Amino acid sequence: MRPLIEVRGLRKDYRRGGAVLHAVDGIDLALMPGEAVGVIGESGAGKSTLARLITRLERPTSGGVFYQDTDVTSLSDRALRRFRREVQPVFQDPLTALNPRWVVRRLITEPLKIYGERDAERRVDEVLRDVGLGKDLMTRHPRDLSGGERQRVAIARALVLRPSMLVLDEPTASVDMATKRTLLALLNRLQSEHGLTCLYISHDIRTIEETCSRTIVMYRGRLAEEGPTTAILSSPSHVYTQILMSSIPRIDSAETRPGRLRARPFSRQHLPDTGCLFAHSCPRVQPECATDPPVVEVTPGHRAACVLAGRASDHSGVTPS
Question: Which CATH number is associated with domain 5-93+164-217?
């Protein structure tokens, strides 16, 4: 089976004054049809930039995004239009993503009109049932809806064209915990029923745990680790991932365990020109970290860009500062 989406050597640079920021720095990944993959990392990791590049809302500085082996970075306007029908984004804040002047019915119907779809009313009714919205909401504006209802409208708008893939950037960040769990259950059901490929961008590890079979960890624009979500959670191999995983609140006696590792304070002034970008904060830094770290396959399907990957089996003593 070939990947639905493949990213090869993807890079996006931004100029900030006289400096260059590598927001996405040489990322390679593949998404298989029907797969749910999560991308995690702290703010500034490049997660949202990666989402915008994959959906072609931005052009990369170099590298390619391939949809069924077609490089979408060089598509004509007509071909790009077809691609955007297949790969739909769902944004973090639907209140800013949805036109505030339109009622719900127009918000959901508009994509069908743009693509000249017939029998739009029937399709809208179907997608309303899919996302659990009542017809009584169709004449309301986004401001008149709850956070959960607005996000359901955003999901319905993305689904109405029957895409093959959703790219969800922090899809539950603007709702409370109870609504979050309901939305995650909805997204899991929709993915299963429609065979959707889903890419979740999130800083919330629990969201990824509940929705994704595979997880990618990013740090400063680079891939730090990739593998089955269960392995990333239970046996992280990159020191950065170990610290990230230990930040999940747990009722565990390990919380009081002495001698746990802590990341050193971060400073952009200490970012190296070469080598591992985490070396400046890493409590286990090695002399080899001065050169670009190898990508080590820890177990089949689980790899990490860390010289210590696979060397130690006990990661329980790591904690963030």
Answer: 3.40.50.300
